[in-house]
Specification:
globular; 8 strands; Rossmann fold; 285 residues; 11 helices; alpha/beta
Length: 285
């Protein structure tokens, strides 16, 4: 009888262990209240611009980017996509890939895609190709951002007209007191110097510039960028509002947490929607 009793306890314990859910993500609004995919999708569908902030190596977020883009398109096919992951000087190659069937092998050789392109960004680019949606390479060429780090915004003055067409108009607006830039200086101290936040700002300014340049009223522009580039309604968001205060912008951010039941205090206010994944989430690279 005792053996049967202990067996029932073990079976009951095992059942409780295996019955526990293992959610891949949780979603919250900016105030920390629970949200869901349908609510996020509805907000995206009502926006002019969506800034979808990601962790570049998080496969769950990349899956949600693809799924939400496809679902938004079903309701609002007048869509433009854009991404930090492609620099403005390769726009012609992106256009050729999307509209003229540039072979994948040639695109890989010439467009400088990120190392995780095949797993994380190619599905989005291929979706644009399938639906014949414009895909905008919004980022400043890396060598010019590096030039700002070395010599400030003035380092860009000597660029050719063609090269300047790949960045935001000069001189860029810049507010060094914005926390997104001031915090960079605090984090690195004297090692980065005053030009490190400027190098970040020229990226934000350039991405905002190309978003506004390629957006037309009535469209929805979904932009994929690192979460830091749009968190706290700063960075790209700040530049977009300076360029066009009437834009309706929805922001999405990403974070890792040890638990998914509630939003950690430090993540509140990051964006309109915050997607939280477990700290143990596997990475794509």
């Amino acid at each position: 009888m005792r053996q049967i009793y202990f067996l029932l306890i073990i079976i009951g314990f095992s059942g409780n262990v295996f019955a526990q859910d293992k959610p891949a993500y949780a979603m919250f609004n900016g105030k920390g209240k629970k949200a869901n995919y349908v609510q996020m999708l509805k907000a995206m569908q009502g926006a002019d611009i969506v800034l979808f902030g990601e962790y570049h190596d998080n496969p769950i977020i990349h899956w949600l980017q693809f799924e939400s883009t496809r679902d938004v398109y079903a309701q609002r096919p007048n869509m433009v996509l854009g991404a930090e992951m492609f620099e403005a000087d390769v726009q012609t190659l992106v256009d050729r890939y999307v509209f003229d069937s540039l072979p994948e092998k040639e695109f890989q050789k010439t467009a400088r895609p990120w190392p995780n392109h095949k797993t994380d960004y190619k599905p989005l680019l291929d979706f644009a190709r399938e639906k014949r949606i414009s895909f905008v390479a919004t980022n400043i060429p890396r060598k010019f951002a590096s030039a700002v780090f070395r010599g400030g915004f003035e380092a860009l003055d000597t660029l050719s007209s063609l090269q300047k067409s790949w960045i935001a108009p000069l001189p860029p607006m810049y507010d060094s007191t914005l926390p997104c830039y001031a915090d960079i200086g605090k984090a690195v101290g004297m090692h980065g110097g005053p030009n490190l936040p400027k190098a970040q700002a020229i990226k934000d300014a350039t991405m905002a510039h190309f978003i506004v340049k390629n957006y037309k009223p009535g469209q929805i522009f979904i932009h994929y960028n690192g979460a830091y580039h749009s968190n706290n309604y700063q960075s790209i968001y700040w530049y977009l509002k300076k360029l066009n205060p009437t834009l309706k912008i929805v922001t999405i951010s990403t974070s890792l947490q040890s638990q998914l039941k509630a939003l950690d205090a430090e993540n509140k206010g990051l964006a309109d929607f915050i997607i939280v994944t477990p700290e143990e989430t596997t990475r794509t690279h």
